[in-house]
Amino acid sequence: MSKAQIWLSRQPCSHHQTILPSQNPLQHTPAPMTSLALFKKAAPVVTAILLPCLSSSCVGPALMAAQQLAQGAIAKRGGGAAEQQKFAKDQTKTQRQAEVGGLVLGAGIGALAGGGWKGAAIGAGVGLLAGHFFGQHVATKKALAQASEANLDACIKESLADNAAVRKRVSSLNSELAAYKKRISVARAQGNGKELAKIKVELNNLNSKVAGEVKTYDAGIGMQKQIVAKVPSSNTKYAKLNSTLRESTGNRDQLESSRRQIASLRDTL
Fold first, then answer.
1. Which of 9, 13, 127, 258 could form a disulfide with 173 if both were Cys (CB 3.0 to 4.6 A apart)?
2. Considering the entire predicted model, what is its pTM?
3. Alpha-carbon span 197 to 215, nearest angstrom
4. Which of the given ranges, 3-7, 15-19, 80-84, has the highest pLDDT on average?
C-alpha cells in the first residue's frame, strides 16, 4: 500500500473533501479531532488504567479519619440516617466533581499539546488522578468542617440538657431541705435524739453526694470554656455557646448554694 493510500485510509468518515490524484496527500493537513472525539478515544484507556484506583478502597487515611469524625459528631448531636446519607452523598459528589474536572482539563491540555488522541488519553489520565487526590483534599476539609460544626451543636445540646438537669436537681434539693427542716423541728419538739442523729448522718451523706455533683459539673464547665475559647466570635454558634456557658455557671452556683445549706443544717445538729 502506498503512503497516499495509507493516509487516505486514516481520514475520518465525515471528511468528504475530494482528493485529486495530482495532489500530494502527504502535504495535506488532516482536520483536528473534536473534543468529543478525543474524549471518546481517551475514555477506554483512562477507565482501564485508573478506575480501580478510584474505588472506596483507595480513600486516603486522612479522609477516612475525617469522615469518621464527622459521622460520629453528627450522631452525637442527634442526626439520623437521613443526615448521615446526605453527608455521604456530598462527600462522593465532591470527589467525583474534582475527578471529572481533572479528566476534562487534562484531556484538553493533552490534545492542545499536539499529542492527538494519545496525548488526550494521557492528559486525561493524569488529570483524573490529580482530580482524584484534589477531590480527597477538598472532601477532607469539608468533612472536618462538618465534624467541627456538628461537635459544636452536640456541645450546645449537651449543655442545655445538663443545665435542665441541674435546675431540676436544685429544685429537688430545696424540697429535701424543707422536709429535713420539718423533721428536725418535730424531733426536737419530741426530744428524739436518735432521730436527730439519723438526720445528721443523712445530711452528711447528702452533702458528700452533692459535693461530687458540683465537682463533676465543674469539669463540664471547664470543657465548655475550652471550647468557647477556641471558637472564633464570627462563628454563628459562638453566641449560643457563650449563653449556655453563662447559664451553666449560674446553675453551678445554685447547686453549690444548695450544698452549703445542707452542710449548714447538718452542723446545727
1. 258
2. 0.60
3. 27
4. 80-84
Residue 52 reports pLDDT greater than 80: no
* Number of separate helices (H) and strands (E) present in the chain: 7, 0
Collapsing DSSP to helix, strand or coil, 78 comes out as: coil
Q: To which H or E segment does residue 198 belong? A: helix 193-230
Which grid cell is 138?
Answer: 477538598
DSSP 3-state of 61: helix
CA atoms within 13 A on the CB side of 259: 17
Give the three-state DSSP class for 180. helix
Q: CA 256: distance to chain centroid?
A: 37
Mean pLDDT computed over 55-62: 61
Distance CA 66, CA 73 (A): 11
In whole angstroms, give the CA distance from residue 115 to residue 128: 17
CA-to-CA dists, residue 92 to 54, 63, 96, 139, angstroms: 11, 12, 6, 8
Cell 468528504 found at:
16
Burial 214-231 (b: 16+ CB within 10 A, else e): beebeeebeebeebbeee
User: Residue written as cell 495535506?
Assistant: 28
**Contact status, residue 170 vs residue 255, Cβ threshold 8 Å:** yes
Cell numbers linked to 114: 499536539
CA separation for the pair 183, 264 (Å, rounded): 16
DSSP E strands, 176-267 = none
